[in-house]
Design a protein that fits this description.
The chain is of the alpha/beta class and about 200 residues long. It has 2 domains: about 50 residues, RecR Domain 1 (Helicase, Ruva Protein, domain 3); about 120 residues, Dna Topoisomerase Vi A Subunit, Chain: A, domain 2 (3-Layer(aba) Sandwich). It has 8 helices and 6 strands; from the N terminus they run H-H-H-E-E-H-E-H-E-H-E-H-E-H.
Length: about 200
């Protein structure tokens, strides 16, 4: 295999969930692809880190400069509930279903001392400030049903200083040690409806 093609295979196989065989197939696809597609793909890849930033309100991802994301600016959304998720992909999974029309807060991970992630490394301070300031009636803890997700939920419950807020968790229909972003639609819908 030519060296430049081999280097492309190595770069592609560095991506998560892509082994060498799939990387080789993708490299050959790119080799034969339309040059305009290659230019567009290259342009998107080169700009993704400079174009995408965190929303200053909820810490979701946005390409709007110095403005909140589309969800935060959507005044038709229910301002009484706040759904706390670990990362952006969890938000995407919930939004795709169309079952929740409230606000979000993206923590940026979960509490995991074993992996060096402490509450101070996440958007916890901002969460507690939003809860205190914005008068939410319900705080939905949509963290993953694993040890880190449970630790994260427990930390939030222990540190919310607003006694009037109702704190709920997604129901246990989600598998233990699972991830929200991989849950099938029906399981996620039932977990949301059965929260308590």
């Amino acid at each position: 295999m030519p060296e430049s093609l081999q280097k492309l295979v190595e770069l592609i196989s560095y991506l998560p969930w892509i082994g060498e065989k799939t990387a080789t197939k993708l490299a050959f696809f790119l080799l034969k692809a339309n040059p305009s597609f290659i230019r567009d793909l290259s342009d998107r890849i080169s700009r993704v880190q400079s174009d995408i930033r965190e929303c200053p309100v909820c810490f979701s991802l946005t390409d709007r400069s110095d403005r909140p994301c589309a969800i935060c600016e959507d005044h038709s959304r229910d301002g009484r509930s706040l759904c706390v998720v670990e990362d952006y992909l969890d938000l995407v999974s919930i939004e795709r279903l169309g079952i929740y029309k409230g606000r979000y807060h993206v923590l940026g991970g979960s509490v995991s001392p074993m992996h060096g992630r402490m509450p101070s490394d996440l958007h916890m301070k901002e969460l507690f400030e939003r809860v205190e300031k914005d008068g939410f009636e319900e705080l939905i803890l949509a963290t993953n049903p694993n040890i880190e997700g449970e630790a994260t939920s427990l930390y939030i419950k222990e540190n919310v200083k607003t006694p009037s807020i109702r704190i709920t968790r997604l129901s246990r229909g989600l598998p233990n040690a699972g991830f929200i972003e991989y849950a099938d639609d029906l399981t996620l819908i039932n977990a949301f409806r059965g929260r308590g």
